[in-house]
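Sequence, please.
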């Protein structure tokens, strides 16, 4: 029997009805940020129900005892759990009140996952006799029948009714009968199985995707609202959002009057056409931009977004702009471009205008706010413009976990720019095609997909350049020179270098040598370094090494120096090839898929200022009979590229687009484009992670910190270890995560390698390794010897 509570608590300092009111207020505030196309009257009603029902399970005596003093609670942890009970109370009322099936599923899904993740359906129909426990575990976070029985019996439904203004007519009549409670639970499960799950399975694919996205929107709003007024110290900070009006005219001021060159004239022609299409096609939902490398896509995309933003119906809450990029080096230069726009507009403090969200970024929204306030506002992507990675964007779009889904509603009523989309794996083509289409319909968003080599995976996109061939035909900056009839060993390549290095240094050229593996790049880098020893006449020409053997801090420093335009030799892996704004005289590239070859070509004679074409030599390097390209890239991508290039000795820049069209069309036929992943998403079934789809299965790796690159980091890490509160300690680790990533080297190891050989563990069982002295240098990166340590 219930002991009874004169007032039910949700948190130690907060009554249940007070928390529900807070969640309702925060949800309504978040709804105001979105259009009426996204937040329909029906969606508003479902959100109101979600706010009321999400914490009903806290009414048990067990939870009330726990919440008085959480640290001292000695009871059974499953008895005080509340999510599973909230789900079943909701199901019972939904059945009793004859809710619309889809409405019920939206509410139940949001409640079920608000402390973990969205639930998944079994691929087979869940039984409700023999598999009752299985069904409850899926939708009630592991609760079982006996737990639910005890919890229901402990509730004073008269008090609960007065707290939440709901009637529990059916359930309160059976609360003292375990048999009747079990029967009621089975009825709820039957409603779940025969109605809710069946309804989802019977939807057409596009309809199922749209429904899933609507559920995610409600879930996302509820997740943020559930924490909002608890996480920030002053509710006014959260509820009163500043309106920062970015202006497209800043871009014109930023461009100014550039020098009259062929490349700048081409950029202006492209810009004029893009601006005209934006003005005439504002009702289009998905756009694409295929343009030659160096066309100024960053500012073209900003023009698209800011002009559409200025024409929004909602002046007080204009759409967020979300810029999605694949590589940290590209993010850094893109962030700098947007900061320059702010400076043109007279904005000096950019933290509230612009947020960078990735593993190396600072977790600061406003330096005057508390740590907790900053953390929450950064996590919820509060700013007008978000610049983030593919990982973070796709996690928020597709992954079911609460920590990612809390951001999902920001993808609705948004202007989303995805650059370098050629880097997306084929297994994401079909999922993103259909999900993007429904996101623009359900969420009222607009997308711009960009690349010099655009894969054809999104249908019905409005091109910002109607005939990109016209612009590619005017580009005569480079030539791909193919040396693919024979292969060459790495030793033979180094001997060949010896005959050319003197000319490169004497002519003071800017040369880029790009390889497919860290091992091959490191060997060439060391060979060149040894060759130049004693040649004092070349001492002023630097040798840069850019690979994952080098910390991000050193890589970004090197890229900044390369951008200065002085003579240099650069040895790299493929991490430099896409989007990094450097301009080289000569490039030599180990064989790779066609889109990679074209991306690296965009780093050669980028400004088109040379009298003759820049040369990109494509060679085929082997190691003991196996091509390095085959160690890294997909076999189909490589074979399609070889077939297309078989008859060529040279490929001119103006012929690139025709080749890439053939390349991507053949890939779409020969490759798995991900229908099974689309189906699993639409039907709420478990799937592999987005991280695995992006990068494949993770290999064993160690992360080594080059601690001397951040002298105060070690002491800060030691102080974090002394924090007793687990949540405060976790947040402290998040604050230094960017600093740690900036000075770290990730190593994929072979059997027989032990990290103790080159590092010591920071603290036992932390998994953090501090690199020993002598195993890293700023110019060489990680320094190791012996094949068992090669990665």
């Amino acid at each position: 029997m219930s002991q009874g509570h004169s007032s039910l608590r949700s948190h130690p300092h907060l009554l249940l009805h007070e928390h529900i009111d807070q969640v309702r207020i925060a949800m309504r505030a978040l709804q105001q940020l979105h259009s009426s196309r996204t937040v329909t009257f029906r969606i508003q009603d479902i959100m109101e129900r979600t706010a009321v029902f999400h914490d009903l399970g806290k009414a048990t005596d067990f939870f009330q005892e726990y919440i008085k003093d959480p640290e001292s609670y000695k009871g059974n942890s499953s008895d005080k759990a509340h999510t599973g009970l909230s789900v079943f109370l909701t199901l019972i009322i939904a059945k009793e009140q004859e809710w619309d099936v889809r409405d019920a599923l939206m509410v139940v899904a949001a409640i079920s996952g608000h402390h973990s993740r969205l639930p998944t359906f079994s691929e087979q129909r869940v039984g409700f006799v023999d598999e009752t426990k299985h069904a409850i575990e899926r939708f009630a976070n592991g609760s079982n029948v006996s737990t639910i029985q005890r919890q229901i019996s402990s509730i004073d439904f008269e008090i609960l009714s007065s707290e939440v203004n709901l009637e529990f007519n059916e359930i309160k009549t059976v609360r003292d009968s375990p048999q009747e409670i079990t029967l009621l639970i089975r009825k709820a499960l039957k409603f779940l199985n025969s109605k809710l799950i069946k309804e989802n399975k019977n939807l057409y694919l596009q309809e199922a995707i749209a429904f899933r996205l609507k559920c995610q929107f409600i879930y996302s709003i509820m997740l943020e609202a559930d924490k909002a007024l608890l996480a920030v110290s002053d509710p006014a900070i959260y509820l009163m959002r500043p309106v920062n009006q970015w202006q497209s005219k800043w871009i014109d001021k930023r461009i100014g009057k550039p020098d009259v060159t062929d490349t700048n004239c081409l950029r202006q022609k492209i810009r004029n056409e893009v601006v005209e299409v934006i003005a005439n096609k504002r009702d289009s939902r998905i756009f694409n931009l295929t343009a030659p490398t160096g066309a100024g896509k960053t500012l073209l995309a900003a023009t698209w977004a800011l002009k559409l933003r200025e024409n929004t119906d909602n002046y007080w809450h204009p759409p967020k702009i979300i810029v999605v990029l694949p590589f940290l080096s590209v993010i850094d230069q893109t962030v700098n471009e947007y900061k320059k726009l702010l400076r043109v507009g007279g904005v000096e403090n950019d933290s509230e205008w612009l947020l960078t969200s990735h593993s190396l970024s600072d977790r600061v929204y406003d330096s005057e706010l508390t740590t907790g306030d900053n953390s929450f506002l950064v996590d919820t992507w509060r700013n007008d413009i978000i610049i983030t990675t593919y990982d973070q964007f796709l996690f928020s779009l597709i992954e079911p976990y609460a920590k990612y889904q809390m951001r999902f509603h920001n993808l609705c009523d948004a202007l989303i720019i995805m650059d370098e989309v050629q880097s997306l794996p084929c297994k994401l083509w079909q999922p993103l095609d259909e999900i993007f289409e429904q996101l623009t319909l359900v969420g009222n968003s607009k997308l711009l997909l960009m690349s010099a080599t655009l894969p054809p995976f999104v249908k019905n996109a409005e091109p910002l350049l109607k005939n990109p061939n016209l612009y590619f035909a005017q580009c005569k900056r480079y030539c791909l020179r193919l040396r693919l009839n024979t292969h060459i060993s790495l030793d033979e390549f180094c001997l060949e270098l010896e005959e050319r290095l003197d000319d490169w240094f004497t002519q003071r050229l800017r040369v880029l040598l790009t390889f497919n593996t860290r091992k091959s790049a490191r060997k060439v880098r060391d060979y060149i370094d040894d060759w130049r020893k004693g040649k004092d006449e070349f001492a002023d020409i630097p040798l840069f090494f850019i690979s994952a053997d080098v910390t991000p801090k050193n890589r970004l420093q090197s890229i900044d120096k390369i951008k200065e335009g002085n003579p240099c030799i650069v040895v790299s892996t493929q991490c430099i090839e896409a989007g990094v704004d450097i301009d080289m005289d000569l490039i030599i590239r180990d064989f790779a898929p066609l889109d990679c070859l074209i991306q690296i070509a965009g780093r050669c004679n980028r400004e088109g200022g040379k009298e003759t074409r820049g040369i990109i030599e494509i060679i085929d390097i082997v190691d003991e009979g196996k091509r390095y390209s085959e160690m890294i890239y997909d076999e189909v991508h490589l074979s399609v590229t070889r077939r297309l290039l078989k008859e060529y000795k040279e490929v001119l820049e103006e012929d690139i687009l025709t080749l890439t069209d053939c390349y991507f069309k053949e890939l779409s036929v020969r490759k798995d484009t991900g229908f099974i992943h689309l189906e699993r998403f639409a039907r709420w079934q478990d799937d592999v992670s987005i991280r695995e789809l992006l990068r494949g299965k993770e290999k064993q790796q160690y992360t080594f910190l080059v601690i001397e690159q951040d002298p105060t980091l070690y002491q800060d890490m030691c102080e974090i270890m002394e924090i007793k509160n687990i949540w405060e300690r976790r947040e402290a680790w998040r604050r230094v995560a960017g600093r740690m990533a900036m000075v770290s080297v990730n190593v994929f190891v072979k059997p027989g390698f032990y990290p103790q050989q080159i590092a010591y563990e920071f603290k036992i069982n932390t998994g953090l390794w501090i690199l020993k002295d002598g195993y890293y240098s700023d110019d060489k990166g990680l320094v190791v010897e012996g094949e068992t340590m090669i990665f």
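The longest strand covers residues 446-451.
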